[in-house]
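> forwarded from #structure-qc
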């Protein structure tokens, strides 16, 4: 493995992270609702689970999903149900007034971790990228370096999102349009959940 391999992996990873999806939406919404600390905490949860999926892809979990398709289907159903649950909670709370730092960081971390835990497509993406970019038969140290690199990229990105979205201007804009933004976010999460449930 060379630095060029890691660079190519980071480019593909960054493109995946910034694409609209439940992880990015959750990061932004959590920061706007509960502040920078909660935003960073949810990012840590998202990043930790995403890097664990990469580790499992390196260990061959994709092969297990192919051997036992029911395991992948079960993960899809659980993931879709969790996204729909978050969407429902967000819709119902759209008109609730919020105070600064309302959500404990530990809850934000757990929510971020679970969103990526119930997304089996993450491991399939990781496996596809790993096969294309990295050489076969990497050492244990090289595999560990890939996982650590993935974690650092995720943490840096979501921390930057938390810092950017926790500014007074961003928060005040959100508070003024909270009902509409929460309802839109709820609909987007519902659509993503249904797409995950119905996709083949």
């Amino acid at each position: 493995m060379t630095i060029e391999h890691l660079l190519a992996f980071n480019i593909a990873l960054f493109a995946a992270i910034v694409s609209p999806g439940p992880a990015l939406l959750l990061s932004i919404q959590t920061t706007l609702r509960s502040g920078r600390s909660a935003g960073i905490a949810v990012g840590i949860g998202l990043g930790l689970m995403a890097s664990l999926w990469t580790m499992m892809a390196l260990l061959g979990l994709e092969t297990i999903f192919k051997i036992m398709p029911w395991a992948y289907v079960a993960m899809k159903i659980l993931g879709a149900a969790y996204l729909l649950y978050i969407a429902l909670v967000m819709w119902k709370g759209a008109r609730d007034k919020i105070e600064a730092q309302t959500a404990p960081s530990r809850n934000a971390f757990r929510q971020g971790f679970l969103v990526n835990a119930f997304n089996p497509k993450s491991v399939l993406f990781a496996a596809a990228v790993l096969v294309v970019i990295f050489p076969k038969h990497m050492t244990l140290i090289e595999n560990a370096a890939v996982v650590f690199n993935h974690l650092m990229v995720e943490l840096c990105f979501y921390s930057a999102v938390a810092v950017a979205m926790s500014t007074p201007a961003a928060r005040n804009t959100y508070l003024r349009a909270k009902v509409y933004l929460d309802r839109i976010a709820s609909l987007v999460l519902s659509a993503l959940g249904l797409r995950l449930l119905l996709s083949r």
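QC bot note: The chain has a mean pLDDT of 80. The two ends are 33 Å apart (CA to CA).
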